[in-house]
Amino acid sequence: MLPMPEGRRFTPSQAKPPGSAHPINANHVARDVPTMSDQAYRLLERHQKLDARLRLLQALRWPDPFEIARLKKLKLAAKDRLARLAAMPRKFHA
User: Fold this and answer.
1) What is the pLDDT of residue 37?
2) Looking at the whole model, is its pTM more than 0.70?
């Protein structure tokens, strides 16, 4: 839990109800807001998982340098594919 500034206390009445933070309700579909494609989502998820595995491996006392190099290459490949995907022109369906 994060500490509150001196002299202030958090009360449940200060909390906003779920969904009130965004002015667009759940039934409204914004046409100008781009969505992440399934492929981009999978690549981002893969990049994050590789990063997590790499961090765990590097935290070991004697990490395997070949496994580290392999994971770094896979992570870079996922990042490159994400960059290529982001550079592609998007097609919006109206």
Assistant:
1) 87
2) no
